[in-house]
Amino acid sequence: MSREALRPVNPAVAGVTSRAPGVVLGVLGFAALTALGARLSVPLPGSVVPMTLQPVAVLLAGVVLGSRAGAASQVAYLAVGAMGLPVFAAGGGVAYLLGPTGGYLLAFPVAAAIAGLAGNRAHSWFRTALWLAVALAVIHLGGLAWLSVWGGEALVASVGVGPFLLGDALKVMLVLAIARRGGTRSAD
After folding, report:
1. Nearest to 121 by CA among 175, 70, 66
2. CA distances from 132 to 46, 139, 168 (A)
3. What is the CA radius of gyration of the chain?
4. pTM of the complete model
5. CA-to-CA distance for 40 and 102, rounded, in angstroms?
6. Which of 140, 64, 129, 153 lies closest to 105, judged by CA?
7. Is 175 in contact with 63 (CB distance < 8 Å)?
8. Which candidate among 14, 47, 52, 141 keeps its CA 20 to 30 Å from the CA of 40?
């Protein structure tokens, strides 16, 4: 059989087969890293939402894998958790996603996709930090929107965003440091 017979007919498919195993491993790896980040949590006094390292994994997934694969890693993470594996901060299952932290978790794929824009389009430190901050804002907006449905304005007021601001700034700096070391994608 000739080499010509082994080449894909569609040139757009040619790169997919060679990159696919690495992308799948990246998606699974960042899903696992997000689960690990859930285990590294600090309960905040008076809040039903703990501070975790999950957002670092979400941002890194987007920056390293790109928007689509980064989002896919978070969809995989949510799917595994929804199936009942204890990958969330305090358990697993669909009921967990319907609890007070569900909105934050469900915003992870969108946040990873936005963080992917930081790796693909931003060229300066400031622009990269801005994309990462927007991604974190999406996580907070998803969480606060769900909290308002789940527990009303009193719950939203008790959680707020304030307790997370310093931690989020540190998370952005950590992701920037890692991204500057060469972990960003050039195209998605």
Report:
1. 66
2. 27, 11, 10
3. 18
4. 0.85
5. 18
6. 140
7. yes
8. 141
